[in-house]
Amino acid sequence: MKRAIFTFLFVVVAGIMSVSAQVTGRWKTIDDETGKEKSIVEIYEQNGKIYGKVVEILNPAKKDAKCDKCSGSDKGKPILNLIIIKGLTKDGDEYTDGDILDPNKGKLYSCTIKLDGKDKLSVRGYMGISLLGRSQTWHRVK
Fold it and tell me: 0.85 exceeded by the pTM?
């Protein structure tokens, strides 16, 4: 009986730890308006916060695109290697209280991301309240 309880607790703890670590990695972005694959974003943790940068642009015609509509320090930077997810913090089973940049529109939105299974990531960008925004589903790159 003790062995069964120990095994159960081990599986639960291992499952919780693996789910929290799964948000990091490489994700293929899918445009919610066109349904087309756009880029590969690498999500990583730095100083306890979550960030994401564009590590590959999938449309050959846009490989050298710059963030011309962006403001501040991102203005004119190449989209490749641009940090588009900034400063998310873990809140239960989602990451929130950070921003996401749409380099095509040059706009910065509040952001929430949440795993949808182990290989899908729900990404929501919004202004003000979460009801006023857009969601995308990104797919893990293996």
Answer: no
